[in-house]
Each structure stands twice: as structure tokens, then as C-alpha cells.
Amino acid sequence: MARKCRIDIVEMVHKAGAGHPGGSLSAIDLIVGLYGTGFRFKIDDPDWDDRDRFIMSKGHASPAVYSILHNLGIITKNDIDGFRTLGSVCQGHVDMKWTDGVDFSAGSLGMGLSFGLGCSIAARMDGSERNIWVMIGDGETQEGQIWEAAMAADFHQTGNLNVIIDRNRIQNDDFMEVQMEIGDIGKKFESFGWKTIEIDGHNMSEIVEAIKEATNDRNRPCAIVAHTVKGKGVSFMENNPAFHGKAPNDDELKLALEELS
After folding, report:
1. pTM of the full predicted structure?
2. Each residue's pLDDT tens digit, 194-246
3. What is the CATH number of domain 2-260?
4. Domain spans of the chain?
5. Distance between CA atoms of residues 249 and 104, nearest Å
6. Which end of the chain is more exposed for a tag (fewer CB within 10 A), N or C?
7. What sign does the dihedral 70-74-77-83 (CA atoms) show?
8. Burial class, 64, CB count within 10 angstroms (exposed 0-12 / middle 13-18 / buried 19+)
9. Are the beta carbons of 177 and 168 closer than 8 angstroms?
């Protein structure tokens, strides 16, 4: 499934001539692991009220979200072929107004964890057992709002709130160590009262075990720090800051598909 999603990602971005392949490829194993095991939803009823929620806070990684929704049958091939075109349900950033299966409208970074916190408190008020999953980028943790939400989540005892950090060490312009390194993210979340789990974000067994552990432990919010490779699966995109937001050309697409097939 992850391999199929990677093919969708590079084809989508190539056809649009724009988009964010690097962070989509680094995140897709995590997303596939979540939807394939520990996530409650209904393919034929994406608005089912008691579903778990997935919030893609780093919303520019929309190709990853659209690829899993396509491979699950929630959106169509025609939908993803329209990626980033006027009127398409698959816009550059995820948007819950237009796309079935999307639970958050993204834009500026840093907002998703606050949104997830609200969803988790609402679930408790509704008496619902639904879990809330938020994916953030490691560069996104430079935003102060992330840590305000982390502090509030501990205070409100939101044991149904889980965050996955895509720790690929590259952000928009360069490596994080050049831009502004944020150090040990796991220790930081622990200091805010969170349970933390560190995994290889491309090892499906570790991903599945972490999701299971986070889901079963509802005593406090949980942060999964997933160590990943930007552009994973496509050799010339891996650990390459240039492909944070760059579409492959025709020759690069051909090579990418050869590697992923």
C-alpha cells in the first residue's frame, strides 16, 4: 500500500508541476500504518461522527493524504489527477470543505495540534471513544503554538490525543541544523507531561506497535517521534532539501517510477 501511495505522490506532483513530494514521501509509511491498523473509519461514510480523526497539520504534504484516500477508495483517480487545479477536490493544502476523508483545513503551520486538542476535548464531552491523531513536521515544532497546545493537552488530560512527528530533519529552505535545530523533540514533549515513543518511521512493525501502544494508553497524550528520511523511496529525493517543494521533471519521474515499481 505504501509503495502504491508513493507512486501516486510522485505522479500527482509531476502532473501538477508543483507540490511537496519530500515530506509526503517521508510521512506515507506512518499514514499507511495508521489507516491500516489502529484508525477507526468507514470508507462508505467518511463523515461518520464517531470516527477517529486524522489532522495533517503540515498540510502541504497533501499528496500523502490524497494518496491514501485514493487507495482506500474514498476519493477517485480522477480526483487525484486534478491535484492543484482550479475546482479540484485535491487542492495544494488539505481542505475539509472539499475533500471526503479530510478532517482539517491546513494553511499556516502550527495550528493542527491546537485543532486536535479541541477535537479531543469535544470527543470527551460527547462521551465518544474516538482517538485524535495529529501529524506535524519537525520544522513545524519551531512554532510556539505547538508548545502552547502541548501544555494545554497535559492540563486537560487528553489521553485520546496522539501526535506523530515526522522527524525528517529538513524544512522549507534547508536542513534544520542550518535553519534552527530544535534538539530532542521527545524530551521536550516529555517535559510537557506527554508519553513519548521513538521509532523508525519507515519500519512498519515499529509503526504498528507504536500506534497500538498509543491507542491503548489513554492516561495522557502521546507523542510518537518518527525518525524518517525526506523523499524516502526515491533516491535523488532522499535527504535532498530541493525536493521539499519541487516537482520532478519527465526524466526524474521515469526514474522515480522505475525505483518504486
Report:
1. 0.97
2. 999 999 999 999 999 999 999 999 999 999 999 999 999 999 999 999 999 99
3. 3.40.50.970
4. 2-260
5. 30
6. C
7. negative
8. buried
9. no
